[in-house]
Amino acid sequence: MSQDTAQLSCQELVELVTDYFEGALAPDEHARFEAHAERCQGCGVYLEQMRVTIDLLGQLPTAALPYGAERELLEAFRGWRSI
Questions:
Q1: Structural domain contains residue 5
Q2: Are 32 and 7 spatial neighbours (Cβ–Cβ below 8 Å)?
């Protein structure tokens, strides 16, 4: 099976979710991502939870974050992805 047609694993979907929401996936990878989310109930639920979280957090005013929190969160997410 070629890389273009290989199915994503659940772990790969989790690792790619940020790129998916940012529109940074290549078209073939985007299609593989969506195909997995459609056929895997657990990943479909995870994706919906992430959508809701992003929608809710996108409504928070910047002032609601303590000083330095944004920087700390970005560093944590960058480190988490490299694990």
A1: no
A2: yes
Give the range of the structural domain holding residue 68, as residue numbers without chain letter: 10-81
Does the residue 4 lie in any domain? no
The set of residues, in sequence order, having a beta carbon less than 8 Å from that of 10 and lying 6+ positions away, is 36, 40, 42, 43
Q: What is the pTM of this model?
A: 0.64
Q: Which residues does 20 contact at the CB level (< 8 Å), separation at least 6?
A: 30, 33
In a domain, 68, yes or no: yes
Please state the domain count of the chain.
Answer: 1
pLDDT in tens, 18-71: 999 989 999 999 999 999 999 999 999 999 999 998 888 777 676 767 878 888
